[in-house]
Each structure stands twice: as structure tokens, then as C-alpha cells.
């Protein structure tokens, strides 16, 4: 675990990258930000979490770190011990956790539930969608710290690394670590500007979409877009699956998870 602290005093804000070693965007965003030698208005902690997995370019060494929280100092697994140490470093802080995915090219956020911190910060981040994980947060960092988890784009892509950097800066502005950006002084890519500036559509996870063992998988619907009853959703080796009821796909991908295609969600409304 590599830790940077900027500013004077005890940080109440933190950014975490590379919880998964095969997702370099968070580490790259943090290193890019640190290299700029920024002047901060309140202290902040920035952490590259799973350095060993990152060096090996694998998701994890022993177990998925983002399913291992709160961890145990005496755990047999590397990630179990690391989860314990990371929770200790983040205790009492408002946290941004940077990730990437194989399912969706644009950034979106996940929280355990929408609360005051989420309402204060997420409308200022350059993304359109926010997902409540609810009971599906077990073992994840968002279940054990005041965390906004952001999927920054497609895993390993240059755009995910660039998105992660601008999301980091937006988060630090929203939490008072950085001053509000002066218009035109520094701007994120146009792809990060929401169509309806300031509005974030909120979804809540309802169920997993199971994926049976197969040689070839396909998906036929788009993430965050309404699926009607009877719509063809996915196929495994030619066995096709249709929707029983209306839902909105989240993290849906042919290749992202071993045992699920993704999740079915309900659309709740918007944050402004």
C-alpha cells in the first residue's frame, strides 16, 4: 500500500486507486495528480492500495480485495490483511475509490445507499449515473467506509485513466481540498460533460443476472437502458435468456464476471 498525504493536519478526505491490480486507472490518476505538486486547501490522503497485485497486473493475489472488507490483521490471505489495514487508514474519512470495468465505457458511481455525502458530492462529478448497491455491497469498501466508488471506463484504456484523473479533481473540488475550477482554466474531455448538467440518474440493484458455464457468451441489451418484459437479454452457448419483468441492466457484460452477466436494477429518479 503506497500512501501520499498532502496539506497540514489530519485528512478527512481520501482517494483510493488500484484496489484491483488489473485496473491501472486509479494509480495513474493519483500519480498524475501528485506529480503536479498541487496546493491543497485542506489535507487529503491518496492511496494506491494493492501494489503487489498491480505489479503483477492481476486482479488479486489470494482473494478479491473488494470482497474482503473489513479484513483481519491475522488473515491468511494478502488481501484479507490489506483490507484491515486499508479500513484503518480510511476510518472517518470521505472516500473516492477509483475502478474500471469491462461493461461500460463511461464513468458511473456506486454507493451503498444515497445519503447526505452522496447528495452533496455526486452532482458535482462528471457522470450521469449513480447506483445504490444495498445488500450487494457485502465485503466491498463501500460497506465499511463513507465511500463513493466510481467505475471510470473500460479496463486498461487510456480514456479510463484520463477520466479517473478528472473525476479525482472534481471530487477534491467538491470536498474543498481543491478550489472550485475556474471556467476555461482546466477542462475535462467533452465526453465527461453530462447531457443534463447537474442531474444524476439514480438506480438501485435488485438482483443478479446468473451466467451458466459456457464457451461463448453474448449480451443483447445496453447498460442503464430500460429492458421490457420479453426482451432478449443474453445467451450462453446459444441458450438465450429473456426478461421476465422490466429492469435496467448495470455492469452487464459477456466477460466481466465468472458467474453473473451483471445486475438488474430499478430506476429511482434523479439527484440535482
Describe this structure in words.
This protein has five helices and 13 strands. It has two domains: 2-198, Aminopeptidase (3-Layer(aba) Sandwich); 208-263. It is an alpha/beta fold and 272 residues long. It has a ten-stranded mixed beta sheet with strand order 1-3-2-4-7-5-6-8-13-12. 19% of the residues lie in helices and 29% in strands. Helix 1 links the parallel strand 2 (13-17) and strand 3 (44-48). The two termini are 36 Å apart. The model has no long low-confidence stretch (mean pLDDT 92).
Strand content: 25-35%
Question: What topology, given as strand order, has the largest sheet?
Answer: 1-3-2-4-7-5-6-8-13-12
Give the ordered list of helices and strands.
Answer: EEHEHHEEHEEHEEEEEE
Rg over C-alpha atoms, rounded to the nearest angstrom? 18 Å
Structural class: alpha/beta
Weakly predicted, low-confidence segments? none
- pLDDT averaged over residues: 92
Return the CATH class of the largest domain: Alpha Beta
CATH superfamily of the largest domain: Zn peptidases
User: Any guess at the CATH architecture of the largest domain?
Assistant: 3-Layer(aba) Sandwich
**DSSP E strands, number:** 13
Span of the ends, CA to CA: 36 Å
Count of spatially separate domains: 2
Enter the CATH topology name of the largest domain.
Answer: Aminopeptidase
Question: Quick one: overall form?
Answer: globular
